[in-house]
Amino acid sequence: MRGRLLRDTSWGILDQALSSGSNVALTIVVARTVGPDAFGGFSLCFVVYMLVLLVVRTTGIRPFTIETAHADVQRARAQARALMGFALGIGCLIGCLCLIAGRLFPDPLRSGLTVLGVLLPGLLLQDAVRGIFFAWQMPRAALVNDGLWSGLQAVSLLSVLLGVENPPMALLMAGWGLPAAVAALGGLATLGTVPARMRLMPWLRTHKDLATPFAVNMMLTAAPSYVAYLVMPLVSSLEELAMVRGAYIFFGPLGVVFTGAAVIALPAIVRSGRSRSRRRMSVQLSSSLAAVGLAWGAIVVALPDSVGRAVLGDLWEGSGPVRLLLAISLVAEAVLVGPDVVLSSLRLPRRMTSVRAVSAAVTLLASVALAAAEGAAGLAAGLAMGYSVGAVLAVLQIRRLPSGVGTLTDERS
Questions:
Q1: CA-CA-CA-CA torsion for 244, 249, 252, 253, nearest 10 degrees?
Q2: Which pTM does this prediction carry?
Q3: So where are the chain's domains?
């Protein structure tokens, strides 16, 4: 079990690195090719895509992973078809809204939203296929599929750059999104199935016990830091905010590791049945990731000034306390992964909702108050406090579980 989990986690991390790396490469290409206004429009479109993607993953892919872990082949395939239909339905719905919204704005946002509206169904279908591969413990197939998308994306973008002088942002977006649809078709061929009808409400009603708390947890996790970033210029300055966001660049790769580990660990833990203590599995997952986070944080804090200035320029000066506090946040975030995955596997996501709610309140209040007093270091301290409180509460939730617990059917168990 441990050997397979380690291998699958490695494949998952490689896949997540490939996926994130291709997104970074796309952003760099667009930033260096179009003007500031067009890049701003692209950034907004990409934020819309990421938010919709997060919704599909939390309300669709994660419940699917848990519900089908012990299902027979026929039911699992039916649920996979329903998941893909759900993803396509969300893509068509939000895509239509993007087409309508695009008519309200001038170019380049008009063209960007229009292209995104057309691309969303294929983009979300590809991610649903990828999620099915992970749920069925086929991480290499997910890596191959994402590799197909990345390879086709590289070819299409290179063709655009070489064939069109000053290509518009919309054409670059098409070179990114159309290959995703091709990769999705390749994934369907590998799975040997096709999406079911696009039925959104039946999916949500069927999986509401998991989808609803997962969605709430997602909002409670993402919202506080973004709100704090938005408020930062009002209570401090843009320069102080830039220092925090600049320092965070060094910690971004660990987010890839944590996400990849969680994606692989969830189906593995769900399928483990009663063979191992879930408390022990949570401790093992969190402690392993925390050790990685601690080592990485130490490296970032101790980086030579020459390396730091090469990356951040003038923002590097005085960033030492910010980097130290962000490293603490990183370790606390790692500790949260184990309880989150284990409680999800036990169909107890509402226990994490209470944790996320308290953590969100502490993060937002402490970040804003401390940023007003201490600037960048205060904001970073608020983030560290919020994540640390969440980590402690999450560990306490795991300690409440019976030591030998295996699978539970609902929260009342």
A1: -150
A2: 0.80
A3: 2-204, 208-399
